[in-house]
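Hi everyone,

Forwarding the result from last night's run.
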Amino acid sequence: MRAGIQAVRQEALWQLSLQAAMHTEDSGDTLIYTGAEGSPPVQERGRQICDQDWTGQGNEALRTSQRTGKPVRVVRGYELGSEFAPIYGYRYDGLYTVKAAWKEKNKEGFYLCRYRMERVLGQLPIPVHSNSIDFYLEHGYFP
């Protein structure tokens, strides 16, 4: 599975894969996500070398999702480093809406595109590491 944003530039985002995502704050039902690299490439060996901008394909798609209210599928990967990430592999964790978008400077002085995303109500709760097995058993995921 490819990390990051899967989208077409002028359309709303359809899937966000959270895998070892730098600068992602994950509290389960709320995500603060750092946008994708723009052009020229933003990441070089894990460090940012220029500002992110709104015109990158993924960043533009996230802003379109915010404007339209169209929900985004979120998939968490085991490398995310969050208590809400699966222990191994990847897991679909439901639909989120983009509630806010802004730019902020990181410690190196470069601008990041940031997004606050909230989980759509009425979905099964997201399992956490401490109760993953019990959660799956309780909700009938295993026979």
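The radius of gyration is 16 Å.

Cheers,
N.
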